[in-house]
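INFO  loader      accepted 1 record
INFO  loader      residues=119
INFO  predictor   begin
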Amino acid sequence: MFTFYYLGFILVGTILAQQYGKKTKNFLWREYFALLAAPIIGLIGLTFFFGFQPIKLFLLGVIILPTLEWFTGRAYHTTLGSKLWEYKHYPLPGGYTSWLAVPIWGGAMVLLWLIVHRF
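INFO  predictor   done
INFO  writer      dumping tokens
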């Protein structure tokens, strides 16, 4: 049940951020924060039911998943000679991941944990 609520928070936040920033072409911090607001509120809500475990997993995801993304992008680039993806805004060295993706990966880790926890 918590999995669906958290996923719902993520989807609603994404849709609202998309509608909010529909007319802009450039990166704006307010739109980025709008995108992150609902998952962060959901994360805080999960702490009432699971204690600090969701926050620990969020922080673990903030470290592990962007690192995996960076190494995957780097491995693809060095192996095949072209980039699979490249971040333009606030990239880490090489452009294989971005500082802006870090909290999104943390939220993804919490969502994966909720899916596994459910089943």
